Amino acid sequence: MRIEPVLVAAEADALATSLGDEAPWTRVLNQGDKVWDLDRAGLESLGPERRAALVEAVHGQAREGFQFLYDSVRVSEEAAKRRERGLPVDRLLDALNSPAWLDVFRTLTGEPGIRMVDGQATRFLPGHFLTSHDDNVAGKNRVAAYILSLTPRWRIEWGGLLTFHDDAGDVDLALSPRFNAIHLLRVPQVHSVSSVAPFAGVPRVSVTGWLRR
C-alpha cells in the first residue's frame, strides 16, 4: 500500500535536505552474505582502478545472484544511540517507534505483534540497484518493509523503480518514488529496485526498513 502524505510538508522538506551530500553516507554492497560499508575516505583510498574493479565485480555477481549497491546512513536500533547522535533520520526512527506510530502500523498490517521499527537512509546514485529478494531473513521477525520516499521530483525514465515480480518472471507492478509517500509491502514478497539510469537528474533518496515482531 501507499500512504501520502506521511509527514508535515516542512518536516519532509527538512528531512530531505538533511540527507544531502553532507550526510554521513557510506557505500554499501554485498559479497554473498557479507556486507561491506565504505565511507568517503575508504572509497577515495581505493583509487580509480580499484573502484572500477569493484564495480565490475559487483556487476558480475548481479548477473545471476542477489546483489546490491547503494549509499546508506545507518541508524541504530538502540534509542539511546539515536538520541546521542541526533540526526533528523534518528529522530524519525524515534517517532516511528512511538506508541502512536506502532499502533498505526499494527492496524495497517493487521499484525498486533509489531514491537519495533528499524531503518536506514538510502541513496541510489546512477548505476545503483537492488536485485530481487523477499526480505525474509531468519531471526529478524519481519512483518513488512517500508519505504519513505524523499526525492522531490522523479521521472519514470530515470529508473530506481520499486518492482514486484510475479511467478512467471514478469513485473507485476512498478512504483515510482513519490515525495513524502510511504510504501508498505508484506514479507515475504519478491521485489527489487531497478538500476538508476546514468542520466538521472537527482539521487533517489529514501528512508527504508522493516516492521518487526
UniProtKB/TrEMBL annotation:
Domain Prolyl 3,4-dihydroxylase TPA1/OFD1 N-terminal, residue spans: 120-212
GO molecular function: peptidyl-proline dioxygenase activity
Alphabetized Pfam families for the sequence: 2OG-FeII_Oxy_4 (PF13661)
Transmembrane segment boundaries: none
Superkingdom assignment: Bacteria
GO biological process, one term: regulation of translational termination
A GO CC term attached to the entry: cytoplasm
Name assigned to this protein: Prolyl 3,4-dihydroxylase TPA1/OFD1 N-terminal domain-containing protein
Naturally occurring in which organism (per UniProt): Novosphingobium nitrogenifigens DSM 19370
